[in-house]
Amino acid sequence: MIDIYTDGSCIGNPGPGGWAAIIIENGATRKLHGRDDNTTNNKMEILAVIEGIEATPSGADVRVHSDSTYVINTMTKNWKRNKNRDLWAKLDSVVAKRNVQWKWVKAHAGHPLNEQADRIANAEARGEPVNDSSSHTTPGKKLSHVDASGKAQMVDVGPKDSTERMAVVTGSVLMQPETLKLIEANDIEKGDVLGVARIAGIMAAKNTAQLIPLCHPLPLDQITVEFRLDHERSAVDIRGTARTTAKTGVEMEAMTAVSVAALTIYDMCKAVDRGMRIGDIRLRRKSGGKSGDIVLE
Predict the structure, then answer these.
(1) Is the pLDDT of residue 291 over 80?
(2) 175: exposed, middle or buried (C-beta count within 10 Å: 0-12, 13-18, 19+)?
(3) What CATH number did the domain enclosing 278 receive?
(4) Which residues are designated catalytic?
């Protein structure tokens, strides 16, 4: 039996939120967690369960522990699903492949793993770093870039069909409020920070296969890099979207675009703020290919 303790959190509701899933399997503990800049508490509660269950092998016996009556009663008592239907559909999909039991846990009642999940979810919602040395590798799944002898290999995508594929990745650069004001006013000495970062991200995406050794060169249909200035968090939020018609996914191109755009912002502003932090670069959604649509927002 694999035990999963989950929790979700949101500041403002709607507002920035976080989720956490603690997985106990054969005496080993793994922790999964993430955040969303604009979400609700209920969405984070559901997403925590989805991520936790999805990290277990198909056919596994799983027991989910949650203090969310919203999640537990919807899954066990057929509460109406008036909202978040996309997430409920995703949860149904991952549950159907496993033998899942549901257990409600009273919140803040001193259960150590429930309390730990709560702390991690709240830290993610606040945008604080989570101290976690646990492995996030999903058991029961073979790494496609490793052959039977453990050597790195490039995946053969020849037999696959070319389909329209899309990936969206986000990330953030946190900085001093004064630095953000300089960027907004275009007063950074090196020039137009966001304009240069956008071009850098696009150029980097086009060269992903030259930077990441086992990535396939892809004929990109489009790369977009967008920015949003968040004065409350004192951050530049980056959103990269990559599109292609090819035999493999375009997530790495979107990841590279956001990563290099963030590095460019740091480079152009480091003279006035060396304490800037790049973080939370993650896949938000993807479509196309065998795995279909995946939505993590």
Answers:
(1) no
(2) buried
(3) 3.30.70.640
(4) 267
Residue carrying structure tokens 């152009």 = 268
Please count the structural domains in the chain: 2
Are residues 191 and 110 located together in one domain of the fold? Answer: no
Q: Identify the pLDDT of residue 139.
A: 39
Residue with tokens 């257990």: 103
Domain membership of residue 70 as a residue range: 2-126
Whether residue 242 lies inside any domain: the answer is: yes
CA distance 250 to 228: 23
- 190 shares a domain with 103: no
Residues 6+ apart with CB under 8 A from 187: none
In a domain, 182, yes or no: yes
Tokens coding 224: 């977009």
Q: What is the DSSP string of 194-226?
A: HHHHHHHHHHHHHTHHHHSTTPPP--EEEEEEE
Q: Tell me the pLDDT tens digit for each residue of 202-243.
A: 999 999 999 988 888 999 999 999 999 999 999 999 999 999
Would residue 153 count as lying in a domain? no
pTM of the model: 0.52
